[in-house]
Every structure is written in structure tokens, then in C-alpha cells.
Amino acid sequence: MRTVLALLGATALIGFAAPAYGGPPPEPNGDDAGFLAALRQAGFNFASPDAAVGAGRAVCSLLNGGESGLELVSDVKAHNPGMDMEQASNFALISAKFYCPHQLSRA
């Protein structure tokens, strides 16, 4: 089951890495290595670290563009069919922690 989820999640992350959403560009700073380590520690697997980082930065682009938390989690899940809502929420939270921590205080 975990292998199937990893394969689906990795494939979906590649699709989410370059979303066609407007809004401010992602934060220029961020701890990519820390982000990837936090994803691994949370049980996320990915085939491409660059795609995972792109997806994490895309989360912040959506938040910076005014998307609500629930909309964001729904978008993450829609772009990653192998994730459930809890996993999508965890991915969004980890992304915000490393790429746009100022968004965490909005909630």
C-alpha cells in the first residue's frame, strides 16, 4: 500500500510542480534540504526532489494569492490523487513552514 501511495504521490507531485496559477512568485528563500527531509520524515516519498520542491513552493504561491487553507488542501489533493485530505494538509503545512512561514500565522 505504501509503495502504491508513493508511486501515485510522486507522479502527481510532478504534475503539481508547475501549476498554472497566477499570483505572487514563490518566496525566493527557503530551506530545500530541510523541506525534503521533513517530507521524508512525515512519510512522503517522491521520485524527483526538484518536483517536490516546486510543489512546495507552489503551495506558497497559492497562499500568497489569497487561496484559503481549505481551498489549498483541496487543490493539493486534486493534484495528488494518491493523497487523502490529511496527507494533503500535512504537505501544505510542511510547505508553508519552509517556504512561507508568515502564512502560518494567518490561520
TrEMBL record:
Entry keyword Signal: yes
UniProtKB keywords: Signal
Signal peptide: 1-22
Sequence ranges assigned to domain DUF732 in this UniProt record: 31-101
Signal recorded as keyword: yes
Protein name: Glycine cleavage system protein P
